[in-house]
Write a structure and sequence with these properties.
With about 325 residues, the protein is α+β, with helices and mostly antiparallel strands. The protein is built from four helices and 15 strands. About 30% of the residues lie in helices and about 25% in strands. Strands 7, 8, 10, 11, 12 and 13 form a six-stranded antiparallel β-sheet that branches. The protein has a five-stranded mixed β-sheet with strand order 1-2-5-15-14, covered by helices on one side. Strands 3-4 form a two-stranded antiparallel sheet. Strand 12 and strand 13 form a beta hairpin. Helix 1 packs antiparallel against helix 2 and helix 3 packs parallel to helix 4.
């Protein structure tokens, strides 16, 4: 039908009826793509925000485990219960319940003390947010740390005195250098426990007493003894240390105090100049020099920086180091 008067022509399709136009179909497809894209974007948000939160929690968890293990191991091998208590204390400071407290929360901790080693295992429940669109409600990152204590294998700043090990007891005074010559028939004739470190002669010996040997000594090194009494250089070197920290006491000596002495433990001494092997290191508090010019030191248990030796292979002379092994 034709229409000049506004009537619908024959064969025409009225507006609003019949199949969709190409433009309307495209709009529908775009809406579907937008919806799918939103899901993908939400997934990416989960990866960026929730995964970022998990990374931060994981790092915090590892730092807490490392700190607890290192804190506890410093009391080994003599005080295993104290080591456990100290590790627990550091965990609580970092927001974790003590393993034996029975308290509940997002964090769970386990501490194991065995011989010269402290192991710490931590888990922490982290709630997720954006990742829930992917069906992930929470995650539980894990951290583990293991710290070990043992005899220190190398020392910087040791004093040039060599001692023999004699089952020293903490806080007891021992002679680090003799004052009078040995008897004529004594195999130690001429040696007073002095060592020649980095050079020979009284002036080198004096400077090493005052400042500490500037190099590094290691277990297994072979060094020369320094024969002769050298009363003057001994007093000159050690009086400077005493006067630099006159009020120090061995029960509370600071790690930077010049009265803290790291002394090589040697395998023996002989008459005159000789070579000796360093088998370990011990720590002493410089008590003083008596009227007979004998150097007196109080034996200490001490921790210092340096490589850790295996206690099953190397003897422990009281000067120790700690390190993370996991």
């Amino acid at each position: 039908m034709s229409s000049r008067n506004g009537l619908v022509k024959e064969g025409a399709v009225p507006a609003g009826s019949g199949p969709l136009s190409t433009t309307e179909a495209e709009k529908g497809a775009v809406m579907v793509l937008v919806a799918l894209t939103m899901v993908v974007l939400m997934g990416f948000s989960a990866l960026t925000l929730d995964v970022g939160r998990l990374y931060i929690k994981k790092q915090w968890l590892q730092d807490a485990a490392d700190a607890a293990a290192l804190a506890g191991v410093q009391l080994l091998p003599g005080d295993p219960q104290g080591a456990r208590t100290e590790a627990d204390r550091y965990l609580e400071l970092n927001g974790f319940p003590s393993p034996g407290s029975g308290s509940s929360g997002a964090g769970a901790a386990a501490v194991e003390v065995n011989g010269d080693t402290v192991r710490v295992h931590l888990t922490y429940k982290v709630d997720l947010y954006f990742a829930r669109v992917l069906g992930l409600v929470s995650a539980e990152p894990v951290a583990a740390a293991q710290a070990r204590v043992g005899p220190v294998g190398a020392v910087h700043g040791a004093v040039p005195l060599g001692i023999w090990w004699d089952q020293f007891e903490y806080g007891q005074v021992y002679l680090l250098k003799l004052a009078s010559p040995a008897d004529e028939g004594d195999v130690l004739r001429g040696n007073f426990h002095a060592l020649a470190l980095g050079g020979k002669g009284a002036s080198v010996y004096r400077d090493n007493l005052r400042e500490g040997y500037p190099g590094v000594l290691r277990v297994g090194d072979v060094v020369s003894t320094e024969p002769g009494n050298m009363k003057g250089p001994t007093r000159q070197g050690l009086l400077d240390r005493l006067q630099a920290d006159p009020d120090a006491v061995y029960t509370a000596v600071d790690s930077e105090s010049p009265r803290l002495l790291f002394v090589p433990v040697v395998d023996g001494l002989a008459a005159g100049r000789d070579e000796v092997e360093i088998v370990g290191f011990a720590a002493f508090f410089l008590e003083g020099i008596n009227e007979e010019d004998e150097v007196q030191g109080r034996f200490l248990h001490w921790l210092t920086d340096g490589p850790v030796l295996d206690r099953e292979v190397h003897a422990d002379y009281g000067l120790r180091s700690v390190r993370l092994v996991q």
